[in-house]
Structure of ABC-2 type transport system ATP-binding protein:
Amino acid sequence: MEIGAENLTKSYGRQIVLNGLTFRVQEGSVLGLLGNNGAGKSTLIHLLTGIHQPDSGVLLIDGKSWLDAAQHDSLRRQIGVLPEQGQLNPELTAAEQLRFTALLYGIDLSSNMDQVMAMAEYLFEDLSVLEKRCATFSTGMKKKLGLILAFLHKPRLVLLDEPFSGLDPGSARLVINFLNAYSRSDRVIVVSSHNLSYVEQVATHLAVLHETEFRFFGTMDAFTSSGQSQLESSLMQLLAPEEKSTDQLRRLLS
Ligand SMILES: Nc1ncnc2c1ncn2[C@@H]1O[C@H](COP(=O)(O)OP(=O)(O)OP(=O)(O)O)[C@@H](O)[C@H]1O
């Protein structure tokens, strides 16, 4: 599934968040979406899911306008989403949440049980967690369950908002391996994250949002070879954050 946009613009009130974005992400790509807090990464993911509408411009899925394409349920079912929050019903057990999400996607969980159990076994050490209520889950457990839900129906387009936040290093490694195993020539994965070292291990392409526009959009190789070898220093150079003095802060906090 190829995705893209032409002249995509989104504002909240008078604040322009995304301004005239034009891009293409080809099948087989894993796009790392980077940018400072408030740069508009989640906003772009919301637009790609179809939850929010752009003010102007066109979102393209397999070359078709997302608004036209969205009318086709089959296409919607090919999208998997890990939102930043609000995905789980705290009252349900994890197993109930899995069944509920499967119902929403219109898939028969019993015939996909091998796949679901394989994902759960891989991400959770102990499968008894599936009988616990989501409300009792730790941050990392919620994230892992959210990932399983996002991949439940083997989507061709996967949109992951902060998949690594709240994960311990071992769990993050599992998720990196999981994403690399899922990546395939007919799929696209979009990963919004602040964790550069993790992004580096999964992304084939990078998009850096800054001040409503892409400061960079291209392959990982092009990004890191454009003068710097390290992802973090390349990003810092691109976004050029101001060095701020901590003198006043020190005085106030002393
Ligand atoms: N529903 C909303 N109503 C009003 N403003 C919003 C809304 N959603 C996002 N914004 C604003 O849009 C801007 C972009 O927010 P967004 O959540 O997309 O950023 P982000 O890059 O995902 O940030 P972070 O890295 O902190 O998660 C912010 O200034 C935010 O306050």
